[in-house]
From TrEMBL:
InterPro entries on file: BldC-like, DNA-bd_dom_put_sf, HTH_17
Source taxonomy: Bacteria, Bacillati, Actinomycetota, Actinomycetes, Streptosporangiales
UniProt cross-references to SUPFAM superfamilies, sorted A to Z: Putative DNA-binding domain
Protein name: Helix-turn-helix domain-containing protein
NCBIfam families: HTH_BldC
Domain Helix-turn-helix: 10-58
Domain of life (superkingdom): Bacteria
Length: 62
């Protein structure tokens, strides 16, 4: 898969928690604190850009 497609993939809260090794509620706290931007699905679930999650893990600013 090309890097541009992978970087723009949308992840669930559980996916982000697994990638970062944290509890899913921590991901929600990060979003509420502005550390991660979340988009809402039609059903009200949050989705996160994989590129933004990787930047957070690397310590880079969003």
């Amino acid at each position: 898969m090309p890097e541009t497609q992978t970087a723009d993939r949308m992840l669930s809260r559980k996916d982000v928690a697994t990638m970062c090794g944290v509890d899913p509620i921590t991901v929600t706290r990060w979003a509420n604190a502005g550390k991660l931007t979340s988009l809402r699905t039609a059903g009200g679930h949050r989705r996160y850009k994989e590129s933004e999650v990787r930047n957070l893990m690397a310590g880079s600013p969003a």
